[in-house]
Amino acid sequence: MNEDEIEGAVTRNLFRTDSDSSDEDDSVIDPIKENSRFSGTRATLRREVLHVTLEEKVGEVSIAQQLWPAAEFLARYILDVAESLETQASIDLNTHVSICSRENEQRSSAFRALQEALESKNSEKAAPIIELGAGLGLTGLEIATQLSVHVLSTELEEGIPMLKTIITVNKSAFKLGEKAVEAQELMWGNKAQSQDALLWYERVCGGVPRPLVVLGSDVVYWEELHDPLERTLYDLLSNTPPGSICILAGMRRWKSDTSFYKTLGKRSRTASHELYCSLLKEDLRRSEGSRQIMRIYAVQWVEREAKKAKQANGKIQLGFQ
């Protein structure tokens, strides 16, 4: 899929509704229906801290202007991990759940990497955060009000004006000051825009190498966007120091959601490295006769197992070109 095809896929899905999908899992809630209750003139999230002004009307909801169900779930998880560093409290890694081989070892490694990235949360040495598909920016905003971190909230061009407005409304609450959170366009699969995000990362690092934390809530949404999303994860994680990590949160809606995580890395791996996915947490919630499965995944750019790397050497392309 080239950049023109990717842009077309994104554009087609900007105002897509639940009636356009035939692969919906009837055990879960559709995201557009779930989010429609947030449409209106004003909503207050985490009322003592965050204020979000909504300008869209019911029936005119763009995926670039969504308050995604997993946004708060992801923010809470990151804050819980950060808090566990102070309290020495344990975090449940759901070790009974496994979706791929060497999972338990990699899950523990991913969790340690996230802890280390957040360990300096009370200084400007903490890992910068890039949020993909930020929507209304809730995840990054909530984290920035609680932790001393720099956050880059990224979205499609259509979502940037509202995102900037919401950031401005909340800027006085950021622990690192009013400029701690910025908004920038990043269309998945667009290498130039990924490079722009990396330039932001280098700027806030100030020449001191630090891991990068990438966040995404409900980003595994339509199957035709899986490839561009993987391209962006590859661009960000393969060009930042070891210890960089992506944390994805999502509410399972369609069977294709799981297939993305199972196949992640096959398109981007090199002879020596690959994107590796680990399931960190799973919550099952029931309400009003329906069930919600909420999951947290970690994605890292890691060295391939020696045997597999040797077998693949010279037989696969070197990542996305």
Automatic annotation (TrEMBL):
It comes from the Eukaryota. Pfam families: Methyltransf_16 (PF10294). Residues 1-27 are annotated as: Disordered. It comes from Phaeodactylum tricornutum (strain CCAP 1055/1). This is Uncharacterized protein.
